[in-house]
Amino acid sequence: MNKSPKFSPKVRERAVGTVHEHREEYPSLWAALESLAPRIGCVPHTLYAWMRKHEVDSGTRQG
């Protein structure tokens, strides 16, 4: 059985952009993820996975 994604690609893209915008306000990436993820409605690990996927898709990380 296929599970439909809870978050649309547009929401994911906006969430990744939010992390990039506010990253400098936190002492580490993980601190930023822990703070921002609940506002988006996900857990930090999910937001981290979206960021990694975005980096692979944009060519800044090998994958």
Q: Care to count the β-strands?
A: 0
Could you name the ranges where pLDDT drops below 50 across 5 or more consecutive residues?
A: none
The helicity comes to 55-70%
Distance between the termini: 27 Å
Q: How does this structure look, described?
A:
It is a single chain. The protein is mainly alpha-helical and 63 residues long. 65% of the residues lie in helices and 0% in strands. The protein has helices at 9-22, 29-40, 44-58.
Structure at a glance:
The chain is mainly α. The protein is built from three helices and no strands.
Notable traits:
single chain, 63 residues, mainly alpha, Arc Repressor Mutant, subunit A
Topology record:
Layout: H1 9-22, H2 29-40, H3 44-58
